[in-house]
Amino acid sequence: MRGLKVAVVVLGVLACTFVRAEAGDWLIRVGTHYADPKSDNHDLVEVEAAFGVTFSATYFFTPNWAVEVLAALPFTHDIKLKGGPTVAETKHLPPTVSLQYHFMPDRSWRPYIGAGVNYTIFFQEDTTGPLSGLELELDDSIGLSAQLGVDIDLSQNLFLNLEVRYIDIETDASLAGSSIGTVEIDPWAAGLNIGFRI
């Protein structure tokens, strides 16, 4: 019984020294996201899922409210004909700005929600297979985003971050100069990150 009391006291002391977000704090996160586009992207093609390296910076202007900027190294997605082979590949960058609300900024587990705006930049659209040599063009996209996540303390200034995001990404596509319509990517993205406070 005494050992249990000691353990509770030690955990309480540790909890007081873990990461606490306060006004003026910055949280930096680095990790990976798995972006899984919705099914039925388009009548002719499907955009495949992809992993990407991501990083973000969050600034707290109160203990509960913060602004986050998400950036990434380029994601690379295969594009397939429905029920057929891979016909193209594209890279994209998904910078996103979100307003976040952190529910329990003084706890060792800190859940939060966020909503914001995403601007997706497509580039290096390369065709292959039966479409090889044809020019594919995907327009940039602006859309809303939402997120749900939690920061879990590992030490005084280090924490683990888990999150899920939804991003509204729709791009107008053209092949060989002719429009083939709108590709609705609209991915869910699951993230695993290591973060630290500065």
Structure description:
This protein has 198 residues and is mainly beta. The protein has a single domain (2-197), classed as Porin. 8% of the residues lie in helices and 62% in strands. It contains 1 helix and 14 strands. It has one helix at 2-17; strands at 26-36, 45-47, 50-60, 65-72, 75-81, 86-93, 96-102, 109-127, 136-138, 141-153, 158-167, 170-175, 178-184, 188-197. The chain has an 8-stranded antiparallel barrel. The longest helix has 16 residues, at 2-17. It is elongated, with a radius of gyration of 21 Å. It starts with a helix and ends with a strand. Mean pLDDT is 88; it is low at 1-18.
Write the layout of secondary structure elements.
Layout: H1 2-17, E1 26-36, E2 45-47, E3 50-60, E4 65-72, E5 75-81, E6 86-93, E7 96-102, E8 109-127, E9 136-138, E10 141-153, E11 158-167, E12 170-175, E13 178-184, E14 188-197
Antiparallel strand pairs: 1-3, 1-14, 2-5, 3-4, 4-7, 5-6, 6-8, 7-8, 8-10, 9-12, 10-11, 11-14, 12-13
